[in-house]
Design brief:
It is elongated, with a radius of gyration of 13 Å. By secondary structure, the chain is mainly α.
Length: 34
């Protein structure tokens, strides 16, 4: 499952934010639920 790496810093930043936002929302939802 390989996909082309983001070439520009903007795309890298957006990709990093996307990957970071996933666990963060899960943690927030889990903490509010608990």
């Amino acid at each position: 499952m390989s996909y082309p790496q983001p070439s520009t810093p903007e795309e890298k930043l957006a990709d990093a934010k996307k990957q970071l936002s996933l666990p963060r929302t899960v943690v927030i939802c889990g903490s509010t639920r608990a």
